[in-house]
Amino acid sequence: MVGYLTSPESQRLSGVERHGGGVTEVLSSAAGMQAAAQMQVGGAPDVTPGVIYTATFKDMAGRPQSLGQWQNKLLVINFWATWCAPCKEEMPIFVKLHQKLAEQGVQIVGIAADTSLNVAKFAKMTSINYPLFSDEAGAIEFSKRLGNRFGLLPHTVVVAPGGAVIYTKLGLISEVEFESILRQNIPK
């Protein structure tokens, strides 16, 4: 089953999961997956470069880290959670692309809508080669400001050097398509 989840406590109701005010689409069929591929993230991001680069999240040591440290790079922000199966499914793609493209000016970061304890446990069990941050409440709110109006996961955003949001994707990324997008936008 592939799903876009907003929380582990979501309640299943006829293929749609609700948690609080959020709606989550659960996809278990080819038709559902095709519908997800056509799903719109929700419009233009509601942020300025200043908002993006001043956003701060805690790293695995509990230290605040600002996204501004990568303002001169092509920044990939992946919103995820340890309880989100599709999020974990696409992480090896990010690992591979970070390994291939980091020296060319691409920086990938993962911002978890999860507790720092869960993220730290997950990080110890996996071989993630890019920074992971946690902000259980703030990650989804920031994701919404970056165009994800429903607050669903996984959600990936690409920010050009200087702060323009040039790509958003709700749901699983395709390695070939995503690598092409990154290569086309690598800073010169």
Keyword list:
188 residues; alpha+beta; Glutaredoxin; five-stranded mixed beta sheet; 6 helices; 11 strands; globular; disordered N terminus
Q: Spans of 5+ residues with little confidence (pLDDT < 50)?
A: 1-41
Give the SSE order as H and E letters.
Answer: EEEEHHEEEHEHEHEEH
CATH superfamily: Glutaredoxin
Rg of Cα set:
16 Å
What's the total number of strands?
11
Largest sheet: 5 strands, mixed
Major β-sheet strand ordering: 9-8-7-10-11
Which range does the strand content fall in?
25-35%
Q: Give the helix tally.
A: 6
Distance between the termini: 40 Å
State the CATH topology: Glutaredoxin
CATH class identity: Alpha Beta
CATH architectural grouping: 3-Layer(aba) Sandwich
Shape: globular
Q: From the helix content, strand content and strand pairing, which structural class follows? A: alpha+beta
Rounded average pLDDT = 82
Overall tally of domains: 1
Provide the helix percentage. Answer: 25-40%
Q: What can you see in these coordinates?
A:
- The protein is of the alpha+beta class and 188 residues long.
- It has a single domain (40-184), classed as Glutaredoxin (3-Layer(aba) Sandwich), CATH 3.40.30.10.
- It contains six helices and eleven strands.
- It has a five-stranded mixed β-sheet, with helices on both faces. A four-stranded antiparallel β-sheet has the order 1-4-3-2, covered by helices on one side. A two-stranded antiparallel sheet has the order 5-6.
- α3 (85-101) crosses α6 (175-184).
- The longest helix is centred in the middle third of the chain and has 17 residues, at 85-101.
- The model is unreliable at 1-41 (pLDDT under 50).
